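Renewal narrative, Specific Aim 1. Our central claim is that a sequence can be written position by position from structural information alone. The example that follows is taken directly from our test logs and has not been curated for this report. It begins with the structure tokens describing the chain, in the order in which they were read.
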């Protein structure tokens, strides 16, 4: 049985040796992550009349709203490379992978409550479990995407098989931001509300529901999240990524942010119970 000896600033004194320990702790906690994911999922849809059907219903609300605004001439969406409903569904599904993950990740430690202070376990598993919930919701929307392929008789490119790989950077970015924001939320409880507002505002600065064209192009290109949204959709529509340089840069930044955030979280996690 492994013996753990605790002393002040232990993680700081480990130096680079902390990385194998971080990965080892995460691998050992995979069962706990799974159990926490099941608990969170059951709690979210508990006593809901429609239950898991909400995961299928919610995307139609913003898509239907923008379709109405476009036909009414209030909003000019522009031309898309696939039927607009399919274009918007793919973009919204990818965006909610980010938005749902970062909002639930920010609240993950605070929502755990007394469990954090009473039980000794790697606290980052709370963030990873919240990300698993976001992935589950994305998988349910993927069923809708496939149905839309048949409904609109749209033939995706064979490069769609690489679609899951193109989603890895936005998953990594979401985890990195969630690790940092969950720590901040433990000290400043207003963080969760601020994040929810910012995520809603940021969606309109990202090519989620409309393509990159016209006056919006510059704003989208300055947004580092834009390539992470458009690249997976480009694989389906065109069979290639239209902005590979932007995608590579955004991917590198996402991985750098994740590893820095994970390191900070791992060092600070011994102080988390004191702040809750």
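The sequence written for that structure reads:
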């Amino acid at each position: 049985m492994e013996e753990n000896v605790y002393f002040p600033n232990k993680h700081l004194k480990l130096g680079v040796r902390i990385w194998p320990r971080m990965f080892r702790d995460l691998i050992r906690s995979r069962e706990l992550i799974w159990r926490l994911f099941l608990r969170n999922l059951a709690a979210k849809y508990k006593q809901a009349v429609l239950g898991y059907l909400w995961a299928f219903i919610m995307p139609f609300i913003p898509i239907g709203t923008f379709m109405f605004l476009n036909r009414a001439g209030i909003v000019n969406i522009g031309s898309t490379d696939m039927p607009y409903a399919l274009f918007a569904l793919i973009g919204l599904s990818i965006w909610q992978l980010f938005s749902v993950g970062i909002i639930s990740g920010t609240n993950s430690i605070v929502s755990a409550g007394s469990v954090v202070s009473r039980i000794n376990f790697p606290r980052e598993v709370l963030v990873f479990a919240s990300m698993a919930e976001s992935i589950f919701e994305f998988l349910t929307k993927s069923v809708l995407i496939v149905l839309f392929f048949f409904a609109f008789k749209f033939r995706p490119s064979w490069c769609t098989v690489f679609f899951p790989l193109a989603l890895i950077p936005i998953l990594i970015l979401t985890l990195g931001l969630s690790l940092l924001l969950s720590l901040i939320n433990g000290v400043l409880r207003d963080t969760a509300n601020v994040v929810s507002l910012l995520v809603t505002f940021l969606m309109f600065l990202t090519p989620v529901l409309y393509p990159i064209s016209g006056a919006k192009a510059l704003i989208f290109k300055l947004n580092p999240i834009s390539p992470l949204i458009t690249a997976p959709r480009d694989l389906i529509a065109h069979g290639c990524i239209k902005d590979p340089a932007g995608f590579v840069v955004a991917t590198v930044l996402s991985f750098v942010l994740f590893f820095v955030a994970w390191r900070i979280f791992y060092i600070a996690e011994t102080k988390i119970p004191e702040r809750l």
